[in-house]
Design goal:
The complex is a heterodimer of chains A (502) and B (450).
Chain A: H1 3-6, H2 49-60, H3 83-89, H4 92-95, H5 107-124, E1 128-130, H6 136-153, E2 161-165, H7 171-178, E3 182-186, H8 196-202, E4 207-213, H9 225-234, E5 238-243, H10 255-258, E6 262-265, H11 267-270, E7 285-287, E8 299-302, E9 308-311, H12 330-368, E10 372-373, E11 384-387, H13 389-395, H14 399-408, E12 415-416, E13 425-428, H15 436-455, H16 457-461, H17 474-479, H18 495-498
Parallel strand pairs in A: 2-3, 2-4, 4-5, 5-6
Antiparallel strand pairs in A: 1-7, 6-7, 8-9, 10-11, 11-13, 12-13
Helix pairs in contact in A: 3-12, 5-12, 6-7, 12-15
Chain B: H1 8-18, H2 48-61, E1 66-67, H3 80-86, H4 89-92, H5 104-121, E2 125-126, H6 133-147, E3 155-159, H7 164-174, E4 180-184, E5 208-213, H8 223-232, E6 237-241, E7 262-266, E8 282-286, E9 298-303, E10 309-314, H9 320-323, H10 336-373, E11 378-379, E12 388-392, H11 397-406, E13 409-410, E14 413-414, E15 425-429, H12 436-448
Parallel strand pairs in B: 1-13, 3-4, 3-5, 5-6, 6-7
Antiparallel strand pairs in B: 2-8, 7-8, 9-10, 11-12, 12-15, 14-15
Classes of the chains: A alpha/beta (502), B alpha/beta (450).
Chain lengths: 502, 450
């Protein structure tokens, strides 16, 4: 490893060096009382502008990304993020607007947000949409908190359970707990649909609601959704829609028409805002009529005197409240708006059509190449599951091995070991923005790994071989925890707390 | 077709392979009565040129007023390199670094971020970020309740001089957990939270206490005395801090005799544009002994099969995708890209640059106060302040603020919305971006708005 590549930015630091052009001129010392002052410098890097630019540019080159590799990560919708969405969201007028600027200086922004709410209403079939939640998990919290506020407002306080299918995302049960509910898990049947008998047995006067993803996390459309909605509503519960898989049904079927009372959308999936190496996302929430009074604030509404304004506490006394200091991830919302306007009504439908076409084609081709589909009798939606159960048993070729060896072929791995109910699973989501040639190349790489496993398991088990690192010892990392850099010369644990680095 | 590469020939070949007549056939498992109507409420698609024109008009509509509003979001200069590098496709369009070998760039960057923010706050460990400062405080309150197992009361003390919207967010996000939030009054003369405000709780079971430095009014709290009071009683302290101020102010890791337990705050001042309120990021740092109770992703150093060093997501057993209903939080996606920008921002500024920024903010706000004092406008409180100040405009502040806005100066935030007793007061902030003539313009428009 060459020293320029692997060093931390701190190891490039040299006392007395700095990127001076970025700092304002010197000012007189402050009159901050001595007992409140910092005694020693924090120990941020001391580097030139070129040092910093080169260091982080090189780091970026160690990442896989949509812009550089096919990224068929199931459940994450890694589609192309159009560049115009970024450059237009970063126009100075948008970047410089203070979140608390008066309405008189916010009409361009507010109108855009209002129109985004309207478009999301149309495409989901919900009565109103809030843009406040900052990520999918916060959208889930918002939705379940509204369900709770609804029951509480009716004095219906004995409902303490949220039903969650075993195939659900981990955020679903974690959210239910954060809202003070107990989680009741129900099984999925052999075809990938919810086990209706188990659902019937689970509902009752204690049911607050159910959290469902449709298409589900196993990549099939829940065909009896109307029946499920009937059973839950009959019992007095509400239906929550996890919008992780909205890409599959955009313009084809709407959660509002399926009977859902509240939904969240992942704008960073369906509406192509960037994943950014783990965020920021946006978890916009849509509600049916009966949950309107409980929507979070702020929320853009048409102002009485024309134009637009934010609805605040006084407009919505029953609101579940505020989710962020300001108005959510506005920059992400702008990107989603620009993307939706470029697609338009006709492009919106193409999203689901071509993501579904790509997934069904890829599933078929992988099956032909010798891979087992988890639900071979079902239509794939925008994603599907390959199970390596047979190969794992026969020759020890696991889903994890395939994932790591794919990296050597220049493909990001599909999602592995989720959903938990399918053994040795690879959840594959190609998205609509990938071409047939890319999909064919991926099938070729998969077939190549399968052939390799017949005579050279060592190479597969040792993969990846072509990346900056090979497989990590994660257990050792969790034991000998090192999450903050300590220079060798004064590496005692107390050093950062007294601020003596640098 | 926008963003879809398929040719007619591709579509035909793919359908043949699937054994379907048309794309429509692929949706045959969706019951017919559920099919969506045409999306007539959505406009037809725009070209990139058309949407560019539209967005330019929208962005221009909001003008470019001279902004003196802070109140939790601060205008700072961001070096050009910061977002140019952060929006490189390799950072911008990557996913959460679950496949460590294919994500060393993001992982090493987060490790460097964790180191920088730990040093800045004077703490031992950090996570990879939370959504924003307010929601980070809510997570810190939940974490403190988990940490303080001795306490049975689930009672948390919050200063009244804490950002009011932070208090509201905490209430929303922990509202269903049976936690009691107690508000501590502030001194109406100094604007500080006095230690005497804690006296009524001296013998109570208190689970955690929050201290904001500076507080919402920009006033510097006597953090040693407040922390000391909690230390004597074994109460964990949560610090809410402005990261730019920490270039000058004593880090929370050194407050009182032994420092606080958890530090959170808004990361926006370190490289995120105002951008109508987001995306920003919340930071959280703590002590090693509490790390297993910390929510969110954490990056750790690791060795690969060849003994070569690198980085991985670690302690994932705390998180929702493993522990499901028993997780420390439901958080999954965080604010990765903003943290990327922020790490580059901190690297470019360094200790010297950040100190200069903090000193310039302090100097400009104090200079503004001096200029206004000459016109008879005084700060509402007597306490020392950092880069934000409550100005007593007297009389009809609302009209004057709107008139100043119409003249191109956003004078600050009226405090009466959340503090009826501070009617007529405006919270203003002059960061390093303000020049002498900007300050003069503030004073002139104030006079003209009379």
């Amino acid at each position: 490893m060459s020293t320029t590549e692997a060093n931390l930015i701190f190891e490039r630091s040299r006392a007395g060096r700095s990127a001076v052009a970025q700092a304002p001129r010197d000012h007189a010392a402050t009159r901050i009382p001595a007992n409140l002052q910092r005694k020693s410098a924090p120990g941020l890097p001391a580097a030139s502008e070129l040092d910093v630019v080169r260091h982080y540019t090189r780091l970026s080159q160690k990442n896989f990304s949509i812009d550089t590799e096919f990224y068929p990560l199931g459940s994450c919708t890694m589609k192309y993020n159009p560049r115009a969405c970024n450059s237009l969201a970063m126009l100075p007028g948008f970047l410089n607007r203070h979140p608390l600027a008066p309405a008189s200086h916010s009409q361009g922004f507010l109108q855009t947000m209002f129109e985004l709410q309207e478009m999301l209403k149309e495409v989901t079939g919900m009565k109103a949409v809030s843009l406040a939640p900052m990520a999918g998990a916060q959208g889930e919290y918002t939705g379940v908190a509204m369900i709770r506020a609804y029951h509480d407002s009716r004095g219906d306080t004995e409902r303490r359970e949220i039903i969650v299918p075993d195939a659900a995302h981990g955020t679903n049960p974690a959210t239910a707990i954060m809202c003070g509910y107990e989680v009741r898990e129900i099984p999925t049947d052999d075809t990938g649909d919810v086990d209706i008998e188990a659902l019937k047995a689970a509902v009752g006067p204690h049911t607050a609601g159910i959290m469902l993803t449709n298409p589900s996390t196993v990549g099939v459309f829940e065909r009896r959704i109307k029946q499920i909605a009937g059973i839950v509503h009959e019992a007095g519960g509400l239906l929550y829609y996890d919008g992780a898989n909205l890409n599959a049904i955009l313009g084809k079927v709407r959660p509002g028409d399926m009977g859902f009372d509240v939904i969240h959308m992942n704008l960073h999936k369906t509406f192509s805002t960037p994943h950014g190496g783990g965020g920021p996302g946006s978890g916009a929430v849509g509600v049916a009529e009966r949950l309107l009074p409980f929507m979070p604030i702020p929320h853009v509404i048409e102002a009485e005197q024309g134009g637009y304004r934010f609805a605040e506490e006084t407009d919505r006394p029953q609101s579940i409240g505020r989710l962020s200091a300001f108005a959510g991830n506005a920059g992400v919302l702008l990107r989603a708006y620009i993307y939706m306007r470029m697609l338009g009504r006709e492009g919106m439908v193409r999203v689901s059509e071509f993501s579904t076409l790509n997934a069904n084609y890829l599933a078929r081709e992988l099956a032909a190449a010798g891979f087992d589909l988890a639900y071979p009798k079902r239509r794939a939606t925008h994603e599907f599951i390959v199970t390596m159960k047979k190969q794992a048993k026969e020759r020890g070729l696991t889903a994890g091995d395939v994932a790591k060896r794919l990296l050597d072929h220049g493909y990001h791995a599909p999602t592995t070991y989720f959903p938990l109910l399918v053994p040795e699973c690879l959840l594959v989501e190609p998205t609509e923005t990938e071409s047939k040639e890319t999909l064919d190349g991926f099938v070729e790489a998969m077939a190549c790994i399968l052939a390799e496993s017949e005579n050279d398991m060592d190479t597969i088990k040792g993969a990846p071989h072509t990346l900056p690192n090979r497989r990590f010892n994660e257990v050792a990392a969790a034991k000998a925890l090192d999450v903050v850099f300590q220079p060798a010369e004064d590496g005692d644990a107390s050093a950062p707390r007294t601020g003596t680095h640098g | 077709m926008p963003f879809i590469p398929h040719t007619e020939e591709d579509i035909r070949a793919m359908l043949d392979s699937i054994g379907a007549e048309s794309v429509e056939d692929l949706f045959d498992e969706i019951p017919a009565d559920l099919r969506a109507p045409p999306l007539t409420g959505i406009p037809e698609g725009e070209s990139e040129m058309g949407i560019t024109r539209l967005m330019q008009e929208r962005a221009a509509k909001d003008g470019m007023p001279s902004n003196f509003i802070g109140a939790g979001a601060y205008e700072h200069h961001i070096p050009a390199a910061v977002w140019q590098i952060a929006t490189r496709g390799e950072f911008y369009s990557a996913y959460t670094p679950y496949q460590a070998e294919a994500s060393q760039g993001t992982l090493q960057l987060i490790y460097e971020y964790q180191t920088m923010i730990s040093r800045l706050t004077g703490m031992e460990v950090s996570n990879a970020s939370l959504y924003d400062g307010a929601s980070a405080l809510a997570e810190a309150v939940l974490m403190a309740v988990r940490v303080n197992r001795r306490s049975k009361a689930k009672r948390v003390l919050l200063p009244g001089a804490l950002h009011p919207d932070y208090r509201k967010v905490v209430k929303t996000l922990i509202g269903n957990q049976g936690i009691e939030l107690v508000e501590l009054p502030f001194d109406e003369t100094t604007g500080q939270t006095p230690v005497e405000a804690l006296a009524p709780y001296a013998d109570d079971d208190v689970t955690a206490m929050v201290i904001s430095q500076p507080n919402f009014f920009g006033i510097l709290e006597d953090v040693d005395a407040l922390t000391g009071w909690a230390e004597e009683r074994g109460i964990p302290v949560i610090a809410v801090v402005n990261p730019v101020s920490l270039a000058l102010l004593k880090p929370p890791g050194e407050w009182g005799a032994n420092g606080v337990d958890i530090v959170v705050g808004e990361g926006q001042p370190l490289g995120a544009p105002l951008s109508s309120g987001g995306p920003y990021y919340g930071f959280m740092t703590t002590l090693k002994k509490h790390i297993r109770q910390m929510p969110g992703r954490i990056v750790g150093r690791a060795e690969d099969a060849d003994g070569k060093p690198g980085f991985v997501l670690t302690l994932q057993a705390r998180e929702q995708h493993i522990r499901r209903s028993k997780a420390t939080s439901n958080i999954c996606t965080n604010q990765g890209l903003v943290v990327t920008a922020s790490t580059i921002h901190m690297s470019l500024l360094g200790d010297e640059g950040l100190t200069r920024v903090a000193e310039a903010c302090y100097a400009n706000t104090h200079a503004l106060v001096e200029k206004l004092a000459a016109k008879g406008i005084k700060p509402r409180f007597t306490g020392e302040y950092f880069h934000e100040v409550a100005l007593d405009f007297g009389g009809d502040a609302a009209t004057r603020v709107q008139t100043m806005a119409d003249a191109g100066v956003l004078a600050g935030l009226e405090l009466s919305r959340d503090y009826p007793q501070l009617d007529g007061c405006v919270l203003a902030c002059a960061t390093e971006t303000k020049t002498e003539s900007d300050l003069e313009q503030y004073v002139t428009t104030w006079e003209q708005a009379a």
